[in-house]
User: What shape does this take?
Amino acid sequence: MAIGVRVAAALAAFGYGFGALSVADRAGEFTTYIGSFPQAGALFLAAGLALVTAGIAASLLRVAGGLGDLAVAGGYLWFCPLWVGWEGGPPLVRSLAMVAQGLAVPVLVHIVSRYLSNPRASHPIRVVVILLYADAVVSAVSLALFRDPFLDPFCWSNCRDNVFLVASFPELTRAVQRIDLVVTGLGVAVFAVLLLGRSLWASRPARRALWPVLPGAVLLAAATAGHARALLRTPLETPASSDFRLAFVGQCLAVLLIAVALPLPALRVHVQRRAIAQVVADIGGAPATGSLRAALRRALADPSLDIAYWLPSSRRYVDALGRSVVTSNGSSGRVVTRVVRDGQPIAVVTHAAGGPDVAAHVGAAVRLALDNERLRAETLAALVDLRASRKRIVEAGDLYRQRLERDLHDGAQQDLLALLFDLRRARTTAAGSAVSLLAEAERAVQASIDELREIAHGIYPAVLTQVGLASALTSLAEDARIPVEIEPVAERRYASNVEVTAYLVVADTIGDATQRAASFAGVRISGDDRRLVIEVHDDGRARTRPLTQLEDRVGALGGLMEAGAGWLRAEVPCG
Amino acid sequence: MRVAVADDAMLTRAGIVRLLRDAGVDVVAEAADAQALLREVALLRPDAVLVDIRMPPTHTDEGLRAAQTIRSTHPEIGVVVLSQYLEVGYAMRLFENHPEGIGYLLKERVSDVAMLLDALHRVRDGETVIDPTIVARLLGRRRRDDPLAALSNREREVLALLAEGLSNRAIAARLFVTERTVEAHNKRIFEKLGLDDSPDQHRRVLAVLAFLRA
Assistant: This one.
C-alpha cells in the first residue's frame, strides 16, 4: 500500500472520529459513555486519535510487522460504539458498527503481541490472540443474525436497529453474550499473565523492547476484564455506575499508553542506526582489534554479542584475533545473523534474542568495517598457525633426539657392555701375553663406553625427562669446565618442551661463557604457573656469537629472550 | 651368596650372570622385567638383587621402582641398581630418605668383579653403595670458593669414601689406618664443611651427597 493511501486513511480517521463524537454529543446522551462525565468525550477522542496518529507515525518510520496499519484500523474500530449509539441515525450504520465494535479489543491485543518480534511470539500468546479474534467474529455474526433489539432486556446503546436480523432467539442471544464476556475477560487476563511472564524471563534487549508497551497492555487487560466482570454481574450497562465508568476510563488510558509506545521501537532503531554509523565513522580506517564488536555491543545494548569471521581459504570461523571458534546454530535465547557482502559471506553475529534485528542495522559502512576486520583476522589466524607449526617442528626434533638417545642406550651401549664383560671373562682364563692384551682391550672398550655415553648425553639428557630440570641442571654444573653456581631450584616439573628449552638455554650459555673465558657462571630459575624465567650471568668477555638458535627455540614456544654484557634472560610461557 | 639378576638386554644379562657364576656366586634367578623379578624375589628370597634401572614396558624407571618395592617388602634383601647414567639425581630418587641396603653402580662396574661382589655384600649387610666414578665426578665439580680446598688430601680421600657409602671399618681397611683415625678424620671433615656429624652412617651418606650437589 502506497504511503499516500495510508496518510489519506489516517486523515480520514480524524474526520471520522470527530464526526462520531459530534454524533454522540448530540443524539446519544444515554447510549454512549460520552456525557456521563465532563471529560469522557475528550478522553475517548484523544485515545482514538492518538492510536491513529501513532499508527501513521509507525508506518512513516517503517516499523516492521504492519503495526501502523493495525493501529489505524484499531482507531477506526475504537470509535464504533459512538456510531452504535447514534439515536436516529441510519440503521445500516448502527448495525455495521455493532458488528465491528467487538473487534476493537482483539486488534489492540494483537498490536501488543506484535512487540514480541524477535523471536516471534510464543505459541500460547498466539493462541490467545487467535481465540480472541475468533470469539469476537463468532459473537458479532451470531448477534447480528439472531439478536432482536426489541426483545433484548439489557439493551442500552442500541435498542432499535439491526438490519442483519434473520431470526429472533433471545435465549441464544443471551448465551452468546455471556460466553463472549467470559472468553474476552479470561482471554485478556491470560494474555497479560503470559506477557508478564515473558518479560521476566526475557534477555535484557528483549525486555527493553517490551517494557514500553507493558503498562498499556496490563491496563487494557485489567480494564477489559473488569468491564466483562461488571457486565456479567449487572447485565445492564449503565455509564453512570462507578464500576463501568472506571472500566471505560481504564480502557481509554490503556489505548493512550499503547499509542504512545507504538513508535518507540522505530525511534530506537533510528537512534541505534545513527549510533552505529557514528561509531563506524569514529573507528576510521584502522580500528583496534575488537573495537567493532565493542561498538556493536554498545550500540545494540547487548554485552553478549559476538562476531565470528569467515575465512574462505581455510573454511573456518575465527574471532578478531585469528583464533578458531565454533559457531552455534542459535541455541536458546541466542540468535545467529549471517552478514553477506557482494554475495560472499563475511561474518556471523551471535546475539541475544529479543533485541533489535541485527540484519537491519548492518548497513554498507558496517559491512565494510566487518570485512576489514575479517582480513585482519585472516592475517592473525595465519600467524597463530605459523606459531603452532614452529612449535611442532621443534618438538618433533626433540622427540627424534630422545629416540636416538634411547636407541644408543639400549643398542650400541649395551653391545659394548656385553663385549666388556666377555673380555673380562676371557681374561680370567687367559694366560701369558694374552692377559695384558685383553686388559688393553678392556680399557679401550671402557673408553668407548665413556665416549658413547657422553655423545648420547649431548644428543639428549635422559635425566631431564626422568628426574627433572633441577637434577639436569646440577648435572650440567658437575660437567662444566668452569664453576657454575645454581641458585636452589624448586623440584617441580614443567611441560617437557619448556624443560628442554630451559636446559638448552643454560647449557648453551654455559658453554658460550666458557669460550669467552669466564671464570664462573651463575644460574637462576624462577617463575610461576604461567611462565618460567631462566637467567644466566657470567663474567666472560663480550659476546660475539649471535644467539639465533636459542632465540629461535625460545621464540617457537612463544617466549622472549634478551641478553646483554654478562647476562642472559629467557622467559618461556608454561600455560 | 644367592643373587637374582634382572636386565631386559639378554646379552648383557647373560654376561653379568656368567661373570657372577665364575666368581662363585649362586645366581638363583634371572628376569627380563620388573614383574618377573618381584615374583622370583618373593619366591626365592635371594640375599641380594642386581637390577637394571631401565626395563620394559616404558623403559624409564621400572628398575628403580622395583628396587624400592623390594626394599620395603623384604628389608633383609640388598639391592644394587645398575645404570648407564652418571647423574646422581637417579640415585637420590632411589634413596629418597632411606639409603640402607641400596647401591647405585654404573653398569660397566660389573666387569670389576671384586668391586661388584663387595657391593653385593655391602648391600646385603644393610650399607649404602655409590659408584666411585659418580663420587669422583661430584668431587671434581669446579667451584669458585671451593669449600673442599680447606681439606687436606687425606681428608679428601676419606670424604670420597664416605660418599661412596663405606663404613668406618671399610674406610680404615682401604686406607690402612685404624678405625679411630678414621673417626677423627670424619669429625674434622664435618667440622670444616659445616655439617652435623650424624652418628647414623646412612644419614651421613645423604648429608655428604647433598653437600656435594649443592
